[in-house]
TrEMBL record:
Identification of the protein by name: RNA pseudouridine synthase
InterPro entries, alphabetized: PsdUridine_synth_cat_dom_sf, PsdUridine_synth_RluA-like, PsdUridine_synth_RluA-like_CS, PsdUridine_synth_RsuA/RluA, RluA_PseudoU_synthase
Coiled coil: none
Organism name: Thiomicrospira aerophila AL3
Ranges of residues in domain Pseudouridine synthase RsuA/RluA-like: 12-152
One of the record's GO molecular function terms: catalytic activity, acting on RNA
Family, per entry: Belongs to the pseudouridine synthase RluA family.
Xref: Pfam families: PseudoU_synth_2
UniProt cross-references to PROSITE patterns, sorted A to Z: PSI_RLU
Organism superkingdom: Bacteria
Biological-process GO terms, alphabetical: enzyme-directed rRNA pseudouridine synthesis
Length: 223
């Protein structure tokens, strides 16, 4: 498998992660191993995407740059934007989802009313194909399964999400419809902006969905 390289410098590389590829190696080589083989060098992941999620991933080329990125993530200096599709109508069409993440069964999470260390997610949405809702999501924190749980809490689980959608419904989908769409940050006095449309999944590739994504081509303008 050849991974699409979106951007590469002496400091870091931005890759387009395919959906269905594990970040770390399981039975098969994961994203990190494949990227290191392809680029023939050690890479330092500074954030991760779930197996079902496609899209933009940053990997540093040195430990020093990795530490810079990690500090930037901790200080919320890196803006992240995601696209998602649900086949359910959300309780609200835009706004915020806030609450503590509580461990549930078998590696799942749920949203609670507590606010001790809340996951904070901002979103807007539009009607897309018949029976679909198309979301542009900006997570302000970086919790495990944060967006997946946030949309589930709105009554609109992500299509194809076997963990948070009804399994019978999720199994009908060719992929989980969550995509890391855009990144924006400043590193060493240089401003970087990356926007990448999804390249797989019939629901993502549908004409009306792509037209909506083009409307969101500068997602930071909508929040």
């Amino acid at each position: 498998m050849t991974l699409p390289v979106v951007f590469e410098s002496n400091e870091f590389v931005v890759l387009d992660k395919p959906d269905g590829l594990s970040f770390h190696s399981e039975q098969q080589p994961g994203l990190v191993v494949l990227a290191e083989r392809q680029l023939n060098q050690t890479l330092y992941p500074v954030h991760r995407l779930d197996k079902m999620t496609s899209g933009l991933v940053i990997m540093a080329k040195t430990d020093q740059v990795a530490r810079q990125f990690q500090q930037m993530f901790e200080q919320r200096l890196i803006e992240k934007y995601y696209l998602a599709i649900s086949t359910h109508k959300p309780k609200k069409k835009q706004g915020w989802v806030k609450g503590d993440m509580v461990a549930s069964r078998r590696g799942s999470w749920r949203l609670s009313v507590g606010m001790m260390n809340p996951a904070i997610t901002q979103f807007i949405s539009l009607a897309s194909q018949p029976g679909e809702r198309f979301f542009l999501v900006k997570p302000h924190t970086g919790k495990t399964h944060q967006i997946r749980v946030a949309l589930k809490s709105l009554g609109a689980p992500i299509a194809g999400d076997i963990r948070y959608q009804l399994v019978a419904d999720a199994m009908q989908e060719e992929r989980g419809y969550l995509h890391a769409f855009a990144l924006r940050f400043s590193l060493n006095n240089h401003q970087f902006e990356f926007v990448l449309a999804p390249s797989s999944g019939q629901r993502f590739l549908a004409n009306s969905t792509f037209l909506t994504a083009q409307r969101w081509a500068e997602p930071w303008m909508h929040f």
